[in-house]
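tool=predict chain=A
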Amino acid sequence: MRVDFNVPIKNGEVEDDFRIRAALPTINFLLEKGGKLVLVTHLGKDGTESLDPVIKSFFTISKIAEDKVSFFENIRKFPGEINNDADFAKELATNGDIYVNDAFSVSHREHASVVLLPKLLPSYAGFQLSEEINNLSHAFESPKHPFLFILGGAKFSTKMPLIEKYLELADYVCIGGALANDFLKAKGYEVGQSLVDSMNYGIEKILNNPKLVVPVDVLVQSEGKLINKKAEEVVKGEIIIDIGTQSLENMGEIIKNSKLILWNGPLGKYEEGGDQSTKKILKLVADSDVESIIGGGDTVALISEMKMEDKFSFVSTGGGATLDFLANGSLPGIKALE
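tool=predict ok
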């Protein structure tokens, strides 16, 4: 079973076990049917990290007997995984009789354990993978209206196609995080030393779209202080770390009238004190009756920290995979199961 237990670890302990818990329904179902499981996951980028903290956390959370489930080594330790090597996939296939993919958050990767292994064994989607597909599809298959799409985080290159798509599908597209800096810069405003993308992705052509909602004020770091300023008042040397109070109010008004909210990525630089708007908007969405679909690694980490996973209609385990699925309607790992 391919899982994604690539979770944050600090001082040898798992900090956020959301992805581990998300895989338990499939694991328990397979065990109840008499299966024995080999779980395949990566941890970190290059495969050098030990799975020991993950394994310890898994058995503590699940209360499953250790003779029922074993872990393959950190899959990224093997070059054949990322290189999508056919011989490596054949070797992997000898470890089981059936393949189950419950790792939505890596299903956008064309890696051996994601796209080749399902071609070599009878293959199935796990419950979490199916949940992801069903829930995220609400955003582009007959979505409810008014439909609000909130997009934060950075990495503009991966998000421009998404913004263009949802400017057509949604009623409002609210931009936050480092993405908003790119829009403010495109408007001709000073953004100081804020994080911006060096490439030009043609923002100008969507800048005047009436559905686009860009911050009108921002929280800046200025000479060691945090100051709320109008977007056009930022000066050189300052760093934008969050959207401002008026922008927050504007978003709150849109939330009140929405029937569907899709949200991916934090609204501020939350590791540097720019987490307040994200937390406030999360609470607003949680307290409303709206259908809410939330994704993005950093946003989900905050939800876990606030113990709010059950306050939304659906919380996705994916980061980049969620964005790719929303943009393209499928992923290589899902297609490999067809």
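The chain has two domains: 9-128, 135-316. Residues 18-32 form the longest helix (15 residues).
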